[in-house]
Design goal:
The complex is a heterodimer of chains A (113) and B (114). The termini of chain A are far apart. Chain A is mainly β. Chain A is built from no helices and 11 strands. The N and C termini of chain B lie far apart (41 Å). The model of chain B has no long low-confidence stretch (mean pLDDT 93). The chains are: A mainly beta (113), B mainly beta (114).
């Protein structure tokens, strides 16, 4: 049981490039989330999903897109990378109800230059 | 509106001393309350949570927290700090009332001094 896995662990992007951060969970959780973590700012919710085919914006969605075609996968897409998107990105999942414990992946560190 | 406030972005304690990390929340409906810990270069992991029932909740690694509704608080304590407790700690509140809300505090970095 791997829990929540994220790839890549670290990536450097040039301004204007695109990339997809991958997230997979094997706990059959309905709820999945993407957060970004900046120093001293805690976690900011980017997007979340309550099930396959259903996604919704969080607090800071601009510059990102998501899709949820399966229960297991919840990729995050950056279309035109900007220096402001330099951050550590965490994917998480939780069980039915959404108010339960969230299980986090190890994170992706992204540097946009 | 729902919110979480963690007092003190940095807390230092001596090894063996009491750890107290403060968390206050606001919510118009009964909340679920959580403490998560983040070790360097890792994701967050659950320390403990309060859903219903007993207001004193025990978690992993000797930590506990008490839900005090009258004070809207959920402070985290540990009687005796260990060097391995050095990490960042996040309080979170979760509610469902027609819509779903899950909010994290801004975190408290705990430093343990030898």
């Amino acid at each position: 049981n791997a829990g929540v896995t994220q790839t890549p662990k670290f990536r450097i992007l040039k301004i204007g490039q695109s990339m997809t951060l991958q997230c997979t969970q094997d706990m059959n959780h309905n709820y999945m989330y993407w957060y970004r973590q900046d120093p001293g700012m805690g976690l900011k919710l980017i997007y979340y999903s309550v099930g396959a085919g259903i996604t919704d914006k969080g607090e800071v969605p601009n510059g990102y897109n998501v899709s949820r075609s399966t229960t297991e996968d919840f990729p995050l897409r950056l279309e035109l990378a900007a220096p402001s998107q330099t951050s550590v990105y965490f994917c998480a999942s939780s069980g039915q109800g959404g108010v339960e414990t969230q299980y986090f992946g190890p994170g992706t560190r992204l540097l946009v230059l | 509106a729902q919110s979480v406030t963690q007092l003190g972005s940095h807390v230092s304690v001596s090894e063996g001393a009491l750890v107290l990390l403060r968390c206050n929340y606001s919510s118009s409906v009964p909340p679920y309350l959580f403490w998560y810990v983040q070790y360097p270069n890792q994701g967050l992991q659950l320390l403990l949570k309060y859903t219903t029932g007993a207001t004193l909740v025990k978690g992993i690694n000797g930590f506990e927290a008490e839900f005090k509704k009258s004070e809207t608080s959920f402070h985290l304590t540990k009687p005796s700090a260990h060097m391995s407790d050095a990490a960042e700690y996040f309080c979170a509140v979760s509610t469902f009332s027609g819509t779903y809300k899950y909010i994290f505090g801004t975190g408290t970095r705990l430093k343990v001094l030898a």
